[in-house]
Write a structure and sequence with these properties.
Largest sheet: 7 strands, mixed
Strand order of the largest sheet: 31-30-32-33-34-35-36
Number of helices: 35
CATH topology of the largest domain: Rossmann fold
Oligomer: single chain
CATH class of the largest domain: Alpha Beta
Amino acid sequence: MNKIAKIAKGILIIALTGAILLLSDLNNRNKETKQKKRIPSGLSAEPNRIYRMGLAYFAPEASFEQLHKGLFDGLKALGFFRDKNLEVKEQHVNGEIGNFHTLLQNFDNLSLDVIVPTSTPGVTSACAAVKNTPVAFTYTYDPIAAGAGTSYTDHLPNISGVGSFPPVKKTFELIKTLFPEAKTIGTIYNSSEANSRKVISVAEEILQAMNLTLRKTTVVNSNEVIQAIQVLVSQQIDVLWITGDNTAMQGFDAIAGTAAKANIPVIINDVDLIGQGALAAVGIGWYATGYHSAQLIARVMNGEDPSEIPIENFVTEQIVFNPELVKKYAITLPDSLNEEDKKPYRISGKKYALALAHYVDSPNSEAVEKGILQGLADMGLTANHDYTLKILNAQGDVSTLNSIAESLKNETYDLIFTSSSPTIQVISKKITDTPVVFSAVGDPVAAGIAESREMHRDNITGISTMSDFVGMLAMVKDLLPEAKTLGTVYIPGEVNSVSYVKHFEAACKNAGMTLIKAPASNATEIMDAANSLISKGVDGVCQISDNLTASSFASIITVTEKAGIPTFSFISSQVDQGSVAAVARDFQQAGYDAAMKAGKILSGTNPKTIPWDYVSKTIIRVNPENAKKYGISVPQKYRDSSHKEKETVEPHKIAFLHFMSSRDCSDTEEGFREGLALAGWEEKKDFVLEIYNAQSEIAMLSSITAAIAMHNFDLIVSNVAPPAQALAQQITNVPQIFTIVADPVGSGLGKSYTDHLPHVTGIDGLADTDAGVALVLECLPKTKTIGTLLYPGETGPVKTLKALQASCKNHGITLEIVTVNTQAEVADAINTLCRKEIDAILQIPDNVSITSFSYIVKTAKKMQKPLFCFISEQVRMGAIAGATGDYTEQGKEAAALAIKILNGQNPAEIPFQSLKAPRIVINCKAAREFGVMLPATLLQSADEKIAE
C-alpha cells in the first residue's frame, strides 16, 4: 500500500510539473503570438484584418474638421476604410480639458490598435492616462511642451506622433510687410493650454526684436471669447493675430465678426479658415497635416513600436489671402511675395487623387480637359507631383459610363471632374460622398442635379455652358439679314440637347424667326437629319451644342456645304471645320473655371456652399473665307475679332484622325505634338493640328474622311487600321502617315514595307507576342494553356494571332481562341473563354476588345483567370501585366516622318517602320486581386509599375 501511495505521489508530482511546464510554455507561446502580432507590416492595411482606433478631440470646430477629413482621406489612400476594415471610436470632451483623462482611460480599456489624441491638452492627458495601448497623436503645436518627451527622438515609449508648430516669425514678418505702420498686435488665448503658452512665449521674443507690442487677453473657456474680443478691440490694436488655440478657434466666428466691425484686420495660422473672416493666413493647413499623419498612425496600427518612431514636426508653410478682404483693406500685395503667395488659394501638403470622366470625345470635352489642366497648373499644382489625374471616357456608351461611375465609386479620389450632362447625371446617382465638379453642362436644373444656383446636390458644384442664344440670333441677323428660318439637329436622348433646343426655339420666336428641328439618335442618323433640314428650305443651319453633334459635326458641314447653306455654331473650333461663325461659350474657360471651383474644395470649402456658375467667357468668331463661299459680307466689328487675313507664310495644316479614344491613341497624338515641338516647330505658327475622332463608328469615319478631303490639308496622320485604310483609299493626293497598324501590308497599304502606296508611309503596331508569352510564364511558370478573344474583321488581329500561335508553340503552350465579331458579343465571348480550362488570358489588341476591355477585366477577375495584354492602358484598367508598345515614342517617330514629308520628301521613298522593343508594364494591385505573386526580378526590371 505504501508503495502504491509513493507511486501515486510520484505520478502526481510529475503531472503537476508537466502542467506547470505546459502552462509556462503556453504563456511563452502566447507571448510569441503577441510578438508576432506586433511585427510591423508597413503602411498599407493588411487583407482580412479589422483595425480598431480611438480618436479623442477637444470639441467640434472648423480646423479640426479639416484635420479629420485629411486624416481619414489619408487612411483611405492606405487601404483603411472606416466602417469596413477600420472601426473608429470617436469622442470629444466638449471643450472641457479635465474630461480628457477619463475619456482616454476608457479608450485604453477597449483593446484598440491605436489611440489618437488631438490637441495639446489631449496629448498631455494621453501621457498620463494611457498605459496599455500605443498612442499616435496629431493636431498639436508642441508635443514636447505637452509632456510627450524631452525631444522628438527621446519620448515616452508608448507614444509618438505629428506636431505642427506654427511659423510665428513668418507671420509677424507678413504683418509688418502689409502694415508697416502697425505698432500693436492683439491676441486671445487660453493660458491653461501648454501649446498656447509656448507660442505666446515665442511670439513675445520675436515681437520684442521687431519693436512691436503684443496685447494679450486670456480666456478659460469659449463662453469668455466674446467679452475678451470686445475688450481687446477697445485697446487700439492695429492687427489681430489668432494662433491655433483650441478655445479661440471654437469662438473664431465671433472674433472675426467683432474685428470686422472695428475695421481691424485678422491674421491667423490656419490656412483652412481663410474664408471665415481672416485677411491672411500663414502656416498650417490642417487637412494636409491630417493626411500626412495617417502614415504614422498606420505604422502603429500595423505593429510598429511607437518608441522606435521619432516624433515629427509637419507644417505646410503657406501664405494665403482672402481676396475680398485684400480689396476691403486696400492692400497692394508687395513684390516681395512670390506669385504663389499672392494666389487666393494655395493647395499643398499632399498628393491629390483626381479623376475626370468624359461621356464622349469631342472638341468640347478636349477643351474642358485642357482648361482643367491649365487651372490646376495656375493654382501651383504639378501633375504627378501634387496630383494624379485619371481620365476616363465612355466613348458615347451609356453602359460604359455606368461602369466608369461604378469604378469611381469603388476607388478613392479627393475630387472628381465631369464633362457633359450625361456624365454628371450618371455620376450624381452613384457618388454622394466625394466632391464632384461638373463642366460643359448646359442646364444643371434640367439635368436633375440642382434646383437653382445655390440649391444643388451637397457634394456637387460646377460650371454651366448654357449657350448665348440671343447673342447668336443678333449675329445671324447681321450676317444674314433676310433669314427667317433656321434649322438645327438635336439629340432626344441628351438632356442638354433637349434643353438647348427648347431655349433656342423660344429665343427664335422672340426674334421673329422660325426654328426647324431634326432629331438624330446616333452618328449614322446625323447626316440624314441634316439633309432633312435642307429639304425644308432653311435659310441657315444654326447647330446647337451637344455631345453627339459636336463629335459628328463633319457630317453636318458636308451636307450644308454641298447644299450651299451657311452653318453657324455654338462651338468656336467648328469655325475651323467650315462654320461661317460661332457665338461660343469657351469650353476651355469652362474647364478652367471648374478647376477654380475645385481649388476652393481642395482648400477646405464644402461644395454644398459653393453655387454653380455660368462660364465666365464667351467667344465670337467669324471666318471671312467661309462667309465668302455663301456671298456673306462680314461687318468690320466682327472682322476685328475674327480670323486674321492670310499671311505670306501659312502654317502647315495637319489632320490627325483617331478611330476611337484610348490611352495609346492619345499617347501617339501627344508624342506627335512633342516630336514637332522638339524639332522647333510651334503650333499655330509652323503648323495647325486638327483632331478628328470616329468614336469607333464606320459611318462617322466615312463622314470625317469626306470632310478631311474637302479641307486642303498638307498632311494626314491616322491611328489604327480602319482610318488608315479609309484615308488611303479615298484621298490619294495628300501625304499620309499611319501609326499603330498591326499589319499595314495586310491592310492594303502596300505589297511590302518598301513597296507601298506612294502617298502613304508609317509605323506598324504589331504586338511582340514572344515577349507577351514570356511575361505570362515569368508570372505563372506552370502555365500550360492561354486564352484570347479574336476579332477576325481586321487583318491586324489575325496577323497578331498567327504570331501568338507561333510563340505559344515555341513554348509548348496550348492556345484557346474564342471569336467575337461585335462589341455586343464580348460579354458572352469572355464568359465562354473563362469557362475553358485555361491558366491565363493574353488578350491580343483589336478595335472591338479595346472598347470593351473593362468588361473583360471584370469577368476575368470574377472567374479568377489571370489577365495579361499588349496595351499599357489595359494594364492600368486592371490587367496584371503587359508587353506594350511605347506609343508616345511612336508619335515622336511619326512627327519625324511628318517633318521630312512637309520639307519635301516623297512618302513613297520612306519605308514602313516597325514598332520598337516593348515596355513591360505591371499592375501590382491587379496581381494581388488575381492572387498572382509577381516575381522579384520582374518587380525590379519592369519599365513601369502601377498601384504598388
